[in-house]
């Protein structure tokens, strides 16, 4: 699932992503930490990976495997 970064809190390392269908999805600091990224910018395109429970478990860039 892909979308654009709507909010990102550099201090807490969490934020929200606006999906292509207009839904807003929150991601946790743990999901951001799993990405290996150091920073996100507003409007940046990202891919969300979900766990079995439906929670976002990783936020990555669409160009990364």
What does this structure look like?
This protein has one helix at about 30-35, and strands at about 1-10, 15-20, 25, 45-50, 55-60. Helices cover about 10% and strands about 45% of the residues. The protein is globular, with a radius of gyration of 10 Å. Strand 2 (about 15-20) and strand 3 form a beta hairpin. The protein has a five-stranded antiparallel β-sheet. The protein is built from one helix and five strands; from the N terminus they run E-E-E-H-E-E. The chain has about 60 residues and is mainly beta.
Provide a compact summary of the structure.
With 65 residues, the protein is mainly β.
Give the helices and strands as they follow along the chain.
Answer: EEEHEE
Number of discrete helical segments: 1
| Helicity, as a percent range | under 10%
What is the CATH top level name? Mainly Beta
The low-confidence runs, each spanning 5 or more residues with pLDDT under 50, are none
User: On the 0-100 scale, what is the average pLDDT?
Assistant: 94
Instruction: Just name the CATH architecture.
Output: Beta Barrel
Number of domains: 1
Strand order, largest beta sheet: 3-2-1-4-5
- What shape does the CA trace take? globular
* Count of distinct strands: 5
Give Rg in angstroms: 10 Å
Q: If you consult CATH, what is the topology?
A: OB fold (Dihydrolipoamide Acetyltransferase, E2P)
Strand percentage: 35-45%
CA distance, first residue to last residue = 14 Å
């Amino acid at each position: 699932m892909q979308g654009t970064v709507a909010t990102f809190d550099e201090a807490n390392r969490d934020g929200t992503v606006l999906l292509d269908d207009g839904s807003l999805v929150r991601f946790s600091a743990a999901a951001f930490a799993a990405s290996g990224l150091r920073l996100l910018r507003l409007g940046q395109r990202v891919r969300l990976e979900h766990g079995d429970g439906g929670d976002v478990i990783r936020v990555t860039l669409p160009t990364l495997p």
